[in-house]
Every structure is written in C-alpha cells, then in structure tokens.
Design goal:
- The protein has 505 residues and is α+β, with helices and mostly antiparallel strands.
- It is 37% helix and 21% strand.
- It is built from 15 helices and 21 strands.
- It has helices at residues 33-55, 58-84, 120-131, 147-163, 180-189, 254-257, 274-294, 308-313, 318-321, 345-356, 372-379, 397-402, 442-446, 458-473, 487-504, and strands at residues 5-6, 99-100, 110-117, 137-143, 168-174, 195-200, 203-205, 211-213, 219-222, 226-230, 262-264, 267-271, 326-336, 361-365, 385-389, 410-414, 419-421, 424-428, 432-436, 450-456, 475-478.
- The strands form 4 sheets. A 15-stranded mixed β-sheet has the order 6-5-4-9-10-12-3-13-20-19-18-14-15-16-21, with helices on both faces. A two-stranded antiparallel sheet has the order 1-2. Strands 7-8 form a two-stranded antiparallel ribbon.
- Strand 14 (361-365), helix 11 (372-379) and strand 15 (385-389) form a beta-alpha-beta unit.
- Helix 1 packs antiparallel against helix 2 (58-84), helix 4 packs parallel to helix 5 and helix 10 (345-356) packs parallel to helix 11.
- The radius of gyration is 23 Å and the shape is globular.
- It starts with a strand and ends with a helix.
Length: 505
C-alpha cells in the first residue's frame, strides 16, 4: 500500500482505535472521595471477616485494623505510582498515527468472506492453514499461548520465514502459559531482524477503582488479507474440544494447570479488506503495550506492497475453500481498551444492538457481569433475552453472575465436566451477530483491550444460533425467580462484582 497512507488527527468520536482516548487525555486520578472511602470500608470489612473466621471474635478488631492499614498502604503506593504514570493515555502524536485512507473505517461496514468456528480444534487447524499462506506479514496477538501447540505454530512460522525472505512477523503474548522452552524459542527467532515479539503482563491499579488491565485481544492476521479473531488461545488445553487430547504437558506453567482440559469456544475467520484495518489496530495495540511495558514509543507499522483495491479483487485461496466460508458478508470492526473506559466503543455497540432488537436476543459468554450501559439496555428488553454462560460452578463467576440474573428471561448454566464454556458471541433477531474477545463482564468493559466484529447476515446468524441451541441442550435452565435471587446471594454477588469483578470478570 505504498503511497496510500495518510496521517489522521485523534477525534472525539466514540469509534476510535487502540491507544487513542476519547475526549480529554485519560488520567488515573479521577476517583472521588466517596469511592475511596467505599473501597477502604470494603477492605476493612473483609479483614474483619477473615479475622473472625481465623480467630473468632477476638480476631475481628485485629483483622479490621489490618485491612484498614492494608488499604491505606495500597492508596499511598498507588498515589505515588500514578503521579508518575498519570499521562499513560495521552493522545498519540499525529506524527505517529498511520492510517490507510482506502481501508474500511472502524465502525463502518465492509464486505468479507467469513466462517464462524465453534470448534477450538478446527480453529487451530485453520490458523495453521493461514500461516502456511504467509508471504509478507504475520501479526498475531495470542493473549494466551504456550506449550506444544505454540511450538508447532512457531515451527510453521520459522519455515515460512526461511522460504520467504520478505516475511516479517510481530507477536504479542501474555506471560501466563509460556514455558522456559517457549521463551528460549522466541529469543532464538528474535535473532532474525524480521521477527519481533512482546510479552505483556497484567497491570494493577487502585484508581479509579481496584482493577487489573491486560491485553485480551486474540487476533491473527496474514498478509493484510486474512484474519481470525475470537476467544481461543494456542495451548493444548485451549485447542481441545469436549474431551482432553492426551495427558497434560509435563512442563506446564502453574497458570496452565488451573485451566480446564478442554474448551468450548467461538472464533471468526475471514478474508477481505477489513483485515488491513485490523492490521493497523494491531500495530496501535503493539505500540501501546510496548510503551506501557518497556517505555518505548514506536509505531512499528509498515505498509505492504499490495494495494487494498487489489485485495478486494482477490478470491478466497484454495487452501481455505474447503473450510466452508460464507461469501460476501457485511462486517464492521470495533476495538476498546482501558483508555476508552468512559465510553468504550465495544460496550456502546453491544448496548446499541440490545436496544434495537425487536424479537430475540441471545447472549453467550464466559462471564455474566455486564457494565452499566449494557445493564440499562437489557432492562428495556424484558421477555426477549436468553443467556448462556459458564456460571453456577466457579467462584466468583457464580456469585457475580447470580446478582445479574434478574436482567434476563432465560438463563442456561453450561455444565460439561472438564470443559470451560468460553464463547463470546451474541445474536440479535436472527439477523445480526457480534463475535470477538469481549466478555459480558466489567473487566472487558472497563479494563482490558478487546476486539469484536459485528456481522449483518442471516446466514451467519443461523449458523451461530444452531450452535447456541446445542449449547443450551448441554446446560441447566435457571429461571430468574429461582433461589439464585435470594437476598443473601444478591448481597454476596454484589460484593463479588465490586471487589473482584474488575480483576477477573
């Protein structure tokens, strides 16, 4: 796309990209006195409860004092830290923003050939097929990756780099599942100047509320033409479906051991000009996290030789034809992150779709703890909302979710032994589908980097709804008026939402 890029000025529009705040630069000093007092009281009460459980009545005062001192320490350290880092989300300088003028804009419809993948094992095979097509660029935000499956895709990438000297690779990974062997492999590949990677960590903060922030985007891009986004990572526990494939890996990390042995997930594979828009957002995400983790502010975006007009004329490669792509689907892209906390574009899109629905809303998500805009939208849709989630089994997912049950008309709690229900997909009126990495939780809405696509196509919606019907058959129906809405559970759920919600759900 040489000669086809332009520089743009940040706007106050709600549909903006990674690293660009909406409105004024975001600062981590917005918490008012009442919120701070509430947090201190909660931590103090938690300490008193721990003291009561551990030492009986004499331990209440000791636990309360310890909780108060701990909260005071957190705020003192947090205040110093955020005085230093209070400008983390200053608007990116215009000189460093590169946008292709012919690629689809964020929040605007384009056309693509797509496949909704409701099988993590099949998604892994399609990812490998895409990698074997790579000639000029691979961009991959894994989020979770590690182990033998990760090493397998790295071997494919190494081979493609040997065969195509112009191929350049950029990876973003979290540290959770990476083994020592994985890290050594990355270091070895980095010796090639055409290979770069960035390992991200969770960042913790007490302002404007206690929370953690992480890159939760799962996105693979090949040659600026092909993409896969959604919920699945790259690890033997995240590419197995319904039943574990073989014994656990011998060198698994502690975080990997906490995962289920299999996962039920959803991803979206596609080919079309929207991939170039995703590619630009990938490099904005890379720049943001490289700045946050290494204090390096460089836009590593590089243009590809093929023009977008040429990409629009490309037919689906023969290697992908056998996977059953649906042709010519209307699709648009949204991204969101902690810099958009006050007006997250993804949250706004999901809330908008809920409000506009006229007959049926189906929501499937690991977490059921929506942020305020989505809650308010759900309140106006009584009688239309069906939700499927991985709830009722794991603290704090269960308690936090139970406190939201009155927002829905039918709640299906998924239950398959050893399988995590990890989908993040919604359908509206049998015509529109939203899919991506975004959970219906406060953490996705307020704290993490996320990505979704909205598709307006009855063919796609039909495929997704068939999958959700099958999920419901493996679930237990819980009516909103049942025991989950008892006063005690609502209180426990509210505390779980407030104290733990933005760390986990």
């Amino acid at each position: 796309m040489t000669g086809m890029t332009r520089l743009v000025t940040p706007t106050n529009c709600s549909v903006v990209g990674f690293g660009t705040p909406i409105g004024a630069p975001y600062r981590m000093t917005t918490q008012d006195a009442c919120e701070k007092i509430e947090n201190i009281v909660l931590i103090t009460l938690l300490g008193a409860g721990i003291g009561l459980a551990a030492w009986g009545r004499p331990g209440i005062s000791t636990g309360a004092v310890a909780g108060f001192m701990f909260s005071f320490l957190i705020y003192s350290v947090g205040r110093i830290w955020h005085r230093v880092h209070s400008h983390r989300y200053e608007v990116t300088p215009v000189s460093k923003q590169i946008v292709d003028q012919h690629s689809p804009a964020l929040g605007k419809y384009s056309r693509a050939d797509v496949k909704v993948i409701d099988n993590a094992a099949e998604c892994f095979e399609i990812k490998k097929a895409l990698l074997r097509l790579a000639k000029t660029s691979i961009e991959w935000s894994f989020n979770f990756a590690g182990g033998r499956d990760f090493r397998e895709v790295m071997s494919i990438i190494r081979k493609r780099m040997d065969e195509h000297p112009q191929l350049r690779v950029h990876l973003i990974l979290s540290e959770d599942l990476l083994t020592k062997q994985d890290r050594l492999l990355l270091q070895e590949l980095e010796r090639h100047q055409r290979f770069a990677y960035l390992i991200t960590q969770r960042l913790y903060s007490t302002e404007p509320f206690p929370h953690s922030e992480e890159n939760h985007v799962k996105l693979l891009l090949v040659d600026g033409q092909h993409f896969i986004l959604g919920g699945s990572g790259v690890h033997s526990r995240m590419t197995a479906v319904d039943s574990p494939l073989g014994p656990p890996e011998s060198d698994e990390t502690f975080s990997a051991k906490l995962l289920h042995r299999a996962v039920r997930d959803t991803d979206l594979a596609g080919s079309g000009p929207m991939a170039e828009t995703m590619r630009q957002q990938f490099f904005a995400l890379y720049q943001t996290w490289e700045n946050r983790t290494h204090n390096v502010d460089i836009n590593r975006f590089f243009p590809l030789e093929e023009s977008v007009s040429q990409l629009e004329q490309c037919s689906l490669p023969a290697a992908l034809e056998g996977f059953g792509y649906i042709k010519n689907v209307k699709i648009k892209l949204f991204v969101g992150g902690p810099e958009h906390r006050l007006k997250n574009p993804i949250t706004e899109e999901v809330a908008k779709r809920i409000r506009k629905a006229t007959s049926e809303i189906r929501l499937a998500s690991l977490c059921i703890n929506p942020t305020k805009p989505i809650r308010e939208a759900l309140k106006g849709q009584r009688g239309r909302v069906v939700v499927i989630g991985y709830t009722g089994h794991t603290f704090p997912l269960s308690f936090a979710s139970w406190a939201c049950y009155n927002l829905f008309d039918k709640i299906f709690e998924h239950h398959s032994l050893g399988i995590m229900y990890h989908r993040k997909i919604d359908t509206f009126d049998g015509k529109l589908v939203v899919v991506g990495s975004y959970n219906l939780g406060a953490k996705s809405g307020d704290c993490d980097d996320e990505i979704i696509c909205t598709m307006k196509d009855e063919r796609v919606a039909q495929v997704v709804n068939c999958s959700l019907v099958a999920d419901a058959a493996d679930s237990t129906l819980q009516e909103p008026q049942h025991q989950h809405l008892s006063l005690v559970l609502k209180m426990v759920g509210s505390v779980s939402q407030y104290v733990l919600g933005r760390f986990w759900i």
